[in-house]
Design a protein that fits this description.
It is a single chain. With 819 residues, this protein is mostly helical. The protein folds into three domains: 429 residues, Multidrug efflux transporter AcrB transmembrane domain (Multidrug efflux transporter AcrB transmembrane fold, Up-down Bundle), CATH 1.20.1640.10; 112 residues, no CATH class; 103 residues, no CATH class. The protein has a four-stranded antiparallel β-sheet with strand order 3-4-2-5, with helices on both faces. The chain has a four-stranded antiparallel β-sheet with strand order 8-9-7-10. α12 runs antiparallel to α13.
Length: 819
C-alpha cells in the first residue's frame, strides 16, 4: 500500500481526471438504470419460478388478466347512473391496445339466464318439482272429490320445501342478482363501478400509464361535477395498485436521496470541521455510487422493488471506508505531519481494516447472490459491487482530491491551528472510554446476559410466527388508508367476491373439465373450511341434460291446469311464467351465450372453454402463510394429476412462491453470509484469538437483533429479510476497525482506541443508519420494515463493537495485570 499511496500522491491530477471522466459516463448509465424501475412483485421471483412462468403463459394467451376499477360516488343516484353509462360508452372508443374491454352492467346477461332458469336446475330437483306438481294435482282431486267426503283416513298432502330449493339456486347467483338492474352498483345506486381491463401484463408500467391516462382524459372530458356537484371518481384494482406503488416508490426515492445526502454531508462537516474534507469525501462517495449503478446497468439492467433503495444504502454504508481513512489522516495532521506523510500513514494503516470491512460487507451482500429469488439476488450483486467500488473510490479519488486541494490551499486541521495536540478528544468518546474503564466487568456480564435473554425468544418459533404473508401490510401506507387499498371495501360491497381470481389454462378443453370436476369434489369434501369459494368454467353456463329437462318442463306445462295457476298470487304467477317460458323450452348452445360470458373464456386465438377460474373466499384466510402455500400446492397437485405443468396464474400463486422462496433461500443466504465473514476474518488475521474477539462483537450484535425481532414480533418479509445477512457484514466491519487499531497500538491501549477510533466508527454507524433510516420515511410499509430492522441491526452492532468488545478487552487486560 505504501507504493500505491505514493503513486496516488504523484499522479493525483490524472487519477482525479480519469475518475471524474469515468464517473460522468457511469452517471449516465445510472440514470438509465433508474428509468427502468419495475415494481411488480413477480419481478422479485426467479424467472424459472412456476408462478412467473405460468403468468407469462396465461398473459400470452389471454387478452387481459387485470383491471382498473373506476368507482363513482354520488348521493344523486340518477346522476351517478348517467355518468357511469356515459363514461363506459366513451371508454369503449379507446383503442384496444390501450383498453381491452369495459364492463359496467350485466342486465342482458341476467335476463338471458332469468328466461332460462329452469334449465339450470339440477335434473333430480326438476324431477322432484314435476312429481310434486303431479302429486299435488292428484291430492287436490282427491280432496275435492265428493265421494271421499266420508273417508275415515286422512289424505296425505304432498310436500316440497320450495324455500330451501330457491335458497339453493339463489346462493349460486347471489353475487349477480344483488346488482340493481344488472348495473355494477350498490342497492341505493350511490356507488357505481366500471371495470376497465388492461391488455397484457401489469408489469408493463408503460401500459399501466397508458390505460390510466386514457381513463383520466375521458373523465375530464365528461366533467363529473356537471352531472352532480358531489360526484367523485376514485380508482382501485390491480392496475391502480401498481401505479400507486410505482409513483410512491419514485417519490420515496427522491426524498430518501435528498435526506441521506444532506444529513451525511452535514454530519461529516460537524465531525471533521472541514468543508474541504466534507466535499472531497462526499464527491468521491457519489462517484463510487455512480460506478456501482453504471456497472449494474450492464450486469442487471433494471431495478426492482427490493433494489430501488440501494442508492441510499450504498451511500450510507459505502462512506465508512472514506471516514476511517480521513479520520486517520486528520489525526496525523494534528500531530504536525506533512500532507504526504499523513496521507501515506492513513492509507497504509487503514487499508487492511477498511478492506476487510468492505469485503465483509460485500460478502454479506454477495451471499444473497446464491439465492434464486431475484429480489435478493440482484440486491446482492449491486451491494457487493457497491462496497468494492466505494472502497476503491475512497483510496483513489479521495486522496487525489485532497492532494490537489492541498497543493493550492494547504489543509490544516482546526486542532492544529489552535495548538491543541492529539490529546483533544470528543466528549462522547471520552465519556465512553471512562465508562468502559470504570465498569468493564459489569458491561461484559450485561452484554452476555442480554445475549442469553435474546436466545430465549427462539423458543417456540414457527414459520408463520416469523414470516409476513399479508401483502397488504407491505403496501404503500397512503394507498391503504386513502388510495386504492382503501377502496376494496367499496368493491366488496358491490361484488362480494374476488375480481381477479386464480386461472388455470390447460391446452385441452377435456383437461379443463377434469380439473374443474376434481376441484369441485375437493371443495365439497373440505366443506366450510375450504379455501375454494367457487370453481367456474364455460361448461357451467351450458346446462346439462337439457333435452331431458325440456321434456320434463313440457310435462309440467301440460299437467299444470290453468285454474290452479290462476289461484296463485300475482308474484307466484310471474314465477311460473318465467319458469315455463318459451326460451326454457329450447336447448342452449355455447354460441347462444351472451358475448360478455363468452369473452370471459375466450383466448387471443379465439379458442374458447379451456379456462378454469378459482375464487378463494373473501377474508383473512389467504393471509396465513402455511395455509396459502398449502392451498396453492393443492391446486397444482390437482392440475398436475391431469397434465404436467398446466399453468396457474394469479397474485396468490405469486405470493405463495415468494413465501416458499424466502423460506428456502433465506436461511441459506444467512448461513453463507456468516460462514463467508468468518472465513474472511480467518484469512485476514490467521489467528484464533483475534478471530474469536472480532466474532465476539458479531455474535453479540446479531444475537441482540434476533432477540429484538422475535421479542417485538417484527416479522420477516421479502424486503426486510435482507437486513439479516447484511448485519453480519456490519458486525464485522466495526469490530475489525476497532480491533485492528488495538493491535497496532498494542495491549492495554483499548481506551485510547475508543477515543481515537470510536468516534470515526460511531460516525460510520451514524451515516449507515441514516442510509437505512431514510427508509423509515417511505410510504411503502415494506421499506419501513426493512429500515426498522436495518437500523436496529446497526445500533446493536455498533454497541457490541464500541462498548461490549472494548469492555471485554479491558476487563481481560485488568485481570491479566492482577495476576
Amino acid at each position: 500500500m505504501k507504493g500505491f499511496s505514493k503513486f496516488i500522491l504523484r499522479r493525483a491530477g490524472w487519477v482525479a481526471f480519469v475518475g471524474t471522466l469515468v464517473s460522468i459516463v457511469a452517471a449516465y448509465y445510472s440514470v438509465q438504470l433508474y428509468k427502468n424501475l419495475r415494481t411488480d412483485i413477480s419481478e422479485l421471483l426467479p424467472n424459472t419460478a412456476r408462478s412467473v412462468l405460468d403468468l407469462d403463459e396465461v398473459s400470452r394467451r389471454l387478452e387481459s388478466i387485470d383491471n382498473l376499477a373506476i368507482l363513482i360516488f354520488s348521493e344523486n343516484a340518477d346522476a351517478a347512473k348517467k355518468f357511469q353509462s356515459d363514461l363506459a360508452r366513451k371508454l369503449e372508443q379507446v383503442p384496444k391496445n390501450v383498453l381491452a374491454s369495459v364492463e359496467y352492467k350485466i342486465d342482458r346477461e341476467l335476463k338471458f339466464f332469468e328466461d332460462r332458469k329452469a334449465l339450470y336446475i339440477d335434473l333430480p330437483d326438476l324431477i322432484r318439482v314435476r312429481n310434486y306438481i303431479e302429486d299435488r294435482i292428484e291430492y287436490e282431486r282427491e280432496l275435492y272429490n265428493p265421494l271421499n267426503i266420508f273417508r275415515e283416513d286422512e289424505i296425505p298432502e304432498p310436500a316440497l320445501d320450495f324455500n330451501a330449493l330457491r335458497g339453493k339456486y339463489d346462493a349460486r347467483l347471489g353475487a349477480y342478482t344483488r346488482l340493481p338492474g344488472g348495473y355494477y352498483s350498490t342497492a341505493a345506486g350511490t356507488l357505481r363501478v366500471i371495470l376497465a381491463y388492461m391488455p397484457g401484463k401489469t408489469s408493463s408500467i408503460k401500459n399501466v400509464h397508458a390505460l390510466k391516462d386514457a381513463v383520466l382524459q375521458a373523465v375530464e372530458e365528461l366533467n363529473p361535477v356537471s352531472y352532480s356537484e358531489d360526484l367523485r371518481v376514485r380508482y382501485a384494482g390491480g392496475v391502480q395498485d401498481i401505479l400507486e406503488e410505482h409513483l410512491s416508490l419514485i417519490a420515496d426515492l427522491e426524498l430518501s436521496t435528498v435526506i441521506v445526502t444532506a444529513v451525511v454531508t452535514l454530519s461529516l462537516f460537524v465531525f471533521f470541521r472541514s468543508w474541504v474534507a466534507t466535499i472531497a469525501l462526499t464527491i468521491s462517495l457519489i462517484f463510487g455510487t455512480f460506478w456501482t449503478f453504471g456497472f449494474s446497468y450492464f450486469v442487471v439492467g433494471y431495478l426492482n422493488a427490493n433494489t430501488a433503495f440501494l442508492g441510499s444504502i450504498v451511500l450510507g454504508n459505502g462512506i465508512n471506508f472514506g471516514i476511517m481513512m480521513m479520520a486517520r489522516y486528520f489525526e496525523e495532521r494534528r500531530a504536525f505531519r506533512s500532507h504526504g506523510r499523513a496521507m501515506q500513514v492513513a492509507m497504509t494503516h487503514t487499508a487492511t481494516a477498511t478492506g476487510a470491512a468492505a469485503l465483509a460487507a460485500g460478502l454479506a451482500y454477495g451471499s444473497l447472490m446464491l439465492t434464486q429469488f431475484r429480489g435478493f439476488n440482484q440486491f446482492g450483486v449491486i451491494g457487493l459491487v457497491g462496497m468494492i467500488f466505494c472502497w476503491i473510490s475512497a483510496f483513489t479519488l479521495l486522496p487525489a482530491f485532497l492532494t490537489i486541494w492541498n497543493r493550492f490551499w494547504p489543509i490544516v486541521p482546526r486542532s492544529s491551528q489552535s495548538r491543541v495536540g492529539p490529546e483533544r478528544r470528543a466528549l462522547l468518546t471520552d465519556g465512553l472510554a471512562k465508562t468502559v474503564e470504570a465498569y468493564p466487568g459489569t458491561i461484559t456480564i450485561a452484554s452476555l446476559a442480554l445475549t442469553l435473554i435474546a436466545a430465549t425468544t427462539f423458543i417456540g418459533i414457527t414459520p408463520d410466527s416469523i414470516l409476513e404473508t399479508d401483502m397488504s401490510r407491505l403496501r404503500n401506507k397512503e394507498s391503504m388508508t386513502t388510495g386504492s387499498g382503501s377502496m376494496n371495501v367499496h368493491l366488496n360491497a358491490i361484488f362480494n367476491r374476488y375480481l381477479s381470481p386464480l386461472v388455470f389454462l390447460p391446452d385441452k378443453r377435456e383437461d379443463a373439465r377434469e380439473i374443474a370436476e376434481k376441484l369441485k369434489q375437493k371443495k365439497a369434501e373440505q366443506g366450510a373450511d375450504s379455501m375454494i369459494a367457487s370453481v367456474q368454467m364455460l361448461d357451467d353456463f351450458v346446462p346439462r341434460d337439457q333435452l331431458r329437462k325440456i321434456e320434463i318442463l313440457r310435462d309440467i306445462r301440460r299437467t299444470l291446469p290453468q285454474k290452479i295457476v290462476q289461484r296463485l298470487s300475482e308474484h307466484d304467477q310471474k314465477l311460473v311464467s318465467q319458469f315455463l317460458s318459451p326460451a326454457a323450452m329450447r336447448p342452449i348452445h355455447e354460441k347462444d351465450l351472451p358475448p360478455l360470458v363468452l369473452n370471459k373464456f375466450t383466448e387471443k386465438d379465439k379458442t374458447i372453454g379451456k379456462m378454469v377460474l378459482i375464487e378463494p373466499p373473501l377474508g383473512s384466510s389467504t393471509w396465513k402463510g402455511a395455509r396459502l402455500v398449502g392451498f396453492i400446492d393443492d391446486l397444482r397437485e390437482v392440475a398436475d394429476s391431469v397434465g404436467e405443468g398446466i399453468p396457474l396464474a394469479g397474485t396468490l400463486a405469486i405470493t405463495s412462491d415468494m413465501i416458499r422462496a424466502i423460506s428456502r433461500d433465506g436461511p441459506r443466504a444467512t448461513l453463507f453470509a456468516f460462514l463467508a465473514v468468518v472465513g474472511l476474518i480467518f484469512i485476514l488475521f490467521r489467528d484464533l484469538k483475534t478471530v474469536s474477539l472480532v466474532l465476539f462483537a458479531l455474535v453479540l450484535g446479531s444475537g441482540w437483533l434476533a432477540g429484538l425481532m422475535l421479542g417485538f414480533e417484527l416479522k420477516v418479509n421479502f424486503l426486510n429479510f435482507i437486513a439479516l445477512p447484511i448485519t453480519f457484514g456490519i458486525g464485522v466491519d466495526y469490530g475489525v476497525n476497532m480491533f485492528q487499531r488495538y493491535k497496532l497500538e498494542g495491549g492495554g491501549s483499548i481506551l485510547k482506541v475508543i477515543r481515537n477510533t470510536g468516534g470515526p466508527v460511531g460516525l460510520c454507524s451514524f451515516t449507515t443508519a441514516v442510509g437505512y433510516g431514510s427508509l423509515l420515511l417511505a410510504g411503502n410499509q415494506g421499506f419501513v420494515s426493512f429500515g426498522t430492522l436495518a437500523v436496529a441491526g446497526e445500533v446493536t452492532c455498533v454497541i457490541a463493537a464500541v462498548v461490549s468488545l472494548p469492555a471485554f478487552l479491558y476487563w481481560q487486560y485488568k485481570r491479566g495485570l492482577q495476576k
